[in-house]
């Protein structure tokens, strides 16, 4: 899938959901992940994170009702029960990556994992 098409899909999602994706996430998804299935990163702690592609991001957020529970966060990946999120509040979006057990959404504070998606882990081919 072309970078331009992915950016257009993200723009439509932003309008529909009244959110704003951080610029580094947009670049990462449109240039690195695209429509790859699967796209996995390994962290320094040797944890494997599945990063959702352009076709999966909205569906995964809908399945877990993320915006109903944490309206300013957007689920971008997962490692088992642990979700990985970006902050998407309009005019206040952040490149930081956060994590939280998906069963604890809305009851615990998010944990900061990285300053941006490029520092979360290395791609596994």
UniProtKB/TrEMBL annotation:
<dbReference type="Pfam" id="PF09346">
    <property type="entry name" value="SMI1_KNR4"/>
</dbReference>
<protein>
    <recommendedName>
        <fullName>Knr4/Smi1-like domain-containing protein</fullName>
    </recommendedName>
</protein>
<feature type="domain" description="Knr4/Smi1-like">
    <location>
        <begin position="13"/>
        <end position="100"/>
    </location>
</feature>
<dbReference type="InterPro" id="IPR018958">
    <property type="entry name" value="Knr4/Smi1-like_dom"/>
</dbReference>
<dbReference type="InterPro" id="IPR037883">
    <property type="entry name" value="Knr4/Smi1-like_sf"/>
</dbReference>
